[in-house]
Amino acid sequence: MSTDLTHGHDDHGHHHEDTWLTKYIFSQDHKMIAKQFLITGIIWAFIGGLLSLFFRMQLAWPNETFPILETLLGKWAEGGQISNDFYYSLVTMHGTILVFFVLTAGLSGTFSNLLIPLQIGARDMASPLMNMLSYWFFFAAGVVMFSSFFVQTGPASGGWTAYPPLNGIRDISINIGSGLGFDLWIASMSLFIVSSLLGGLNYVATIINLRTKGMTMTRLPLLIWALLFTAVLGILSFPALLSAAVLLEFDRILDTSFFLNNIVIGGDLLAYKGGSPVLFQHLFWFLGHPEVYIIIFPAMGIVSEILSVNAKKPIFGYKAMIMSIGSITVVGFFVWAHHMFVSGMNPNLGIVFIIFTLLIAIPSSIKVFNWLTTLWRGNLKLTPPMMFAIGFISFFIFGGITGIFLGNAPVDLPLHDTYFVVAHFHVVMGVSAFFGMWAGVYHWFPKMYGRFMNDTLAYIHFWGSLIGGYLVFVPMHFLTGVPRRYYSFEQFTTFDIFQDVNVIITLGAFLVFATQIVFLINFFYSIFKGRKMTSDNLNPWGANTLEWTTPVERIHGNWSGDIPQVYRWPYDYSVNGNEINPQTKPLEEGEEEH
Amino acid sequence: MTTTLLSLFAVFLFFLVIFYIAKTIELSSIAKNGLKNDYVKSTKVNAYLAMFFYIVGMIILVMTTISLAPRMLPESASVHGVEMDKMFDVTLWVTGLAFLLTQTLLFFFVYFYRYNEDRKAYFFPHSNLLEMIWTIVPAVVLVALVFKGIGVWHNVFDFQQLDGKDPIVFEVTGKQFAWVLRYPGADGKLGPREITHENINEFNAKYSLPNELGIVWTDKASQDDIYPNDIYLVKDRPVLVKLGALDVIHSFYLPHFRVKMDCVPGMPTQFMFTPMYTTEEFKERLKNKKFWKNIDPKTGEPRWKGFKFELACAELCGKSHFGMQKNVVVVEQEEYDAWLAKQKPFYKTVVKKAMDRVDNQ
Ligand code: HEM
Ligand SMILES: [Cu+2]
Ligand SMILES: [Cu+2]
C-alpha cells in the first residue's frame, strides 16, 4: 500500500559504513532499538525483582537480622535489618520500576519496535529518529531514577501512586523520600512519559501508514491491533500523568496549592489553601487504569499469535477479539475511580464506576473463551513460547476473576488497600504480563539474534515461574483483611497471625527469582552461542505472518528484495490441505478469503 | 563470611550443573536431528507435566483453602458488613465456578490436543452462536452482581437512615502517626472547629499548646468534649464517625466492621455503621471456631481470649503507617454511659490551665 513512503531497498544494500556507535548505540533501526528496550527492561526487571526480595525478607522474618543486608545496603539496613524508611523506598521503587520501566517500556517498547514493521511489512518505523529518541528518553529516565538511590535521603518512598500530601510537600520530616528523591522521581517519570509519547505516536503512524501492499486493517495480526490500541491508550492517558506530576512538583517547590488544603504539621497550619488531594488521585488513575491495559494488551497480542501458530488453528473470533480489545480501550477510560471508592469522593459517583468496571469484564472474558476455543481441537506443539502463552491464560483468568470482586464497590470496601488487591494485580499484571513477555522473547528471539534459546532451560524457567507464581500469590489471597504497605504486623493482634504464610510467600519469591537467573543465563548465553537459525529454517514455528519471510541476517530495511505483498489474513492454518498458508501466498483458484 | 561464600559457591555450582545438563540435551538433539527442533518429544513431556500440575495444583488449592480460610477475618461485626460478606460469598461462588471451568478446559485441552502426527487441527475461525453465548452469559451474571452491588453500596452511604436513630457521633482525625479521637461531652455536641491561622498558629504561639484540630475553645460545646484513648461503641446503636486528617491522607479502617474511609486533610468525610455484638459476645462466637480455639503461642491462651476489635490505618501515610493502632470496644449502653462519665474533658485537664497561665499574667 505505501511502500513508496519508505525508502526503497536500494538505500539499504550499502549500510556497511555504519559505525559501531550508530549500529549498536545510536541506532535508528527498529530491530536494534527493540533489543535496546528489551535488554534495558531485563536489567530493570532484575533490579526491581531484587528489591522485592529485600522487603519480602522483612515481611517473613521481621525480627531477624541478616548481616549481609547491612553489607549490601549500609545505613538503610543498620544491624542487618531494613529500616522502615527504606522499606517504603523499596516498595515504592519496586512498583515504579516494574510497572513503568519493565512492563511498559520493556514489554510494549520491545515488541512494538520489533514487530510492527516486520509484521505489517515496512522497512522501519515512520520516524526512525523519533524512535531512537524514544529509547534514549527512556534510558535517561532510568539513569535519573537509578541516581535517586544514591541521594542522601534515599529514593521516593511514598508509594508508586505518589499521592499528595505525602509526596506533595518537600519536607523529609513528613516522608524521607519526599526530598530530592521524589524530585528525581518526577523528573524521571516526565522523561519516561516523553519517551512513551514519542514511541506511541510513532507506532500509530507506522501502523496506519506503512502497511505493505495488501495488508488491510483486517489482515493485520491481532498483535498489531493490540499494539495499536496500546499506543492509543498511552497517547491519551500519559499526558494526564504528566500534568499531575508537573502540578505536584509546583506544589512542592513553588508552594502552589493544586493538591493541598489546610495542612497542619507540628501544631501549625501551613499556607496551602483550596487544593484537593483527591484531584491528584483522579488524574493519577486516569492514567493508572489505562496503564494496566497498556501493560496487558501487548501480552494479550503476543499470546494470541503464539497460540494460533502452535495450535495450527486460526485464532477463534478474530473480529470479536478486535472488538473486545477496542471496547476495553474505550471503556478503560471510564473506570479509573474504582481505585478510589473510599477516597472520599462522592459515593454516588462510585455507582457509575461499578457499572463501567464490571462492563469491562465482559470483553475480558470473551477473550479468554476465544483463546480456549483456539486450543480446542488444535494440534498443539508445546514449544516454550506456547507453554508461556498457556501460563498467561491461566494467570489472566485467576487475576481477572479477583478483579470482579474489586470492581464491585461494596465488596471492594473491605478489600481495598489489603493484600487481596496486591494479589489481584500481581497475578494479572505482574505474573501474567510477564508470561506474555517471556512467551514473546522465546518466540521472537531468533528474529532478534538469529539464534534460539536453549529449550531445556526455557522449560525449567516456565515450570519454576508457574509453580513459583502460584506459590506466592495463592496464599496471598487469604490475607483478605491485612493492610498492604505495612512494615510489620506486630502492632495488631488482628493481622499478626500470618507469619508462616508470609514465610511461604517469601520462599516462593526466592524460587521465582532463582528461576529468572536460569532465564538470564539462557538469554545472554544464547545471544552469542545459542543454536543457530539456518536459512533452511527461516520459519521455525511454522507461522503465517510476514516477519518470518525476512532473511536470517537482520538487515537494515528488513527485506533484501521488495517488500512482500499480502493476500490473506494471517490465520489460515490447517485449511486448503496445508498446515500453513503464509500471508504472502495468493488466494487459490476459487478460494474465498476468510 | 565463609559460610556466605560457600553458599554463594553452592548456588553458582547449582546453576552451572543445570546449565550443562540443558546444554548436553541440546547438543545431543542437534547431533541427531540437526539444527531444527520439531518439539515432538518435549510436547509430550510438557503435556503430561501440565496434567500433573493441574491435578496436584487443584488438590493443593483445596488443602490451602481448608487450612487458611479459618484464619481469614471472622464474620462481620456490623450490620452492613453482613450484606457485604454475602456479596463476597456470592461473587466467590460465581467466579469460583468460572475459574474451575476455564482452568479445567485450559489444561485438558493442552493435554488432549497435544501434538499428534496423525491428527489435523480443525479449522474453526468463528461461530456467532458461541460468541453470543459467552457474551451474554457473563453479561447476565455481571448485571446481576452490579444490581445487587449498587443496592448494598447505596445503603452503606444513605445517611438519612440515621434520622431519629440517636447515633453516637464522634470524630476521628488522623495524623502522623496517631489517631485523635473526640467524643462530645454531656451536651451531646462536638464543639466547633475553625481551621485558621489565628485559631491554630497564634493559639499555639501564645499558649505554647498546639491546637492542631483548630478547636474553638471559647465555645461552651468544646469545653466538655473528651479525647479518649480507645473507641467505645454501643451494641445495636448506630455510629456516625466524622473523619479528617491533619497532615497526609490516612484511612480509617475497622476490619471486623467492614469499615474503611479515607481521612483527607482539608476535606471532611464520614462513615456510619452499627455494631451487632459486644466485644465479649463476639469472643463467645469465636470460642468454638477452628483456629480461634487453638492456643496462641504468644500468650499461651486460646486465641479467642485475646481477640479484640482494632482500628488500623489503610492508606500509606509515612514511615510509621504500620503502627497506627487503636482498640475498639463494643459494650452495652449502661457500660458506655459509665465509661463516658469517667472521662475528663480535655479542656478542664489541660487547655484551661494553659490558657489561664498566660491570660492571667
Ligand atoms: C476483569 C478485569 C479487572 C477488573 C474488574 C479489575 C478491577 C480492579 C479494581 C476495582 C481495583 C482497585 C482495587 C482497590 O484498590 O481496592 C484494581 C486494582 C488494580 N488492578 Fe485490576 N482489574 C481488572 C484487571 C486488571 C488487569 C488486566 C490489570 C493489569 C494488567 C490490573 C491491574 C491492577 C492494578 C495495578 C491495581 C492496583 C493498583 C494499586 O492500587 O497499586 N487489573 N483492579
Ligand atoms: Cu483499574
Ligand atoms: Cu497510614
Tell me what the structure shows.
The complex is a heterodimer of chains A (about 600) and B (about 350). With about 600 residues, chain A is mainly α. Chain A has helices at about 10-15, 20-25, 30-60, 65-75, 85-120, 130-145, 180-210, 220-255, 275-310, 320-330, 345-375, 385-405, 410-415, 420-450, 455-475, 500-530; strands at about 265, 270, 450, 530, 575, 580. In chain A, the strands form 3 sheets. In chain A, strands 1-2 form a two-stranded antiparallel sheet. In chain A, helix 5 runs parallel beside helix 7 (about 180-210), helix 10 runs antiparallel to helix 11 (about 345-375) and helix 14 (about 420-450) packs antiparallel against helix 15 (about 455-475). Chain B is α+β, with helices and mostly antiparallel strands and about 350 residues long. Helices cover about 45% and strands about 15% of the residues of chain B. Chain B contains 9 helices and 11 strands. The longest helix of chain B is centred in the first third of the chain and has 34 residues, at about 80-110. Chain B is elongated. The relative contact order of chain B is 0.11. The model of chain B has no long low-confidence stretch (mean pLDDT about 95). At the A-B interface, helix 5, strand 1, strand 2, helix 9 and helix 10 of A face helix 1, helix 2, helix 3, helix 4 and helix 5 of B.
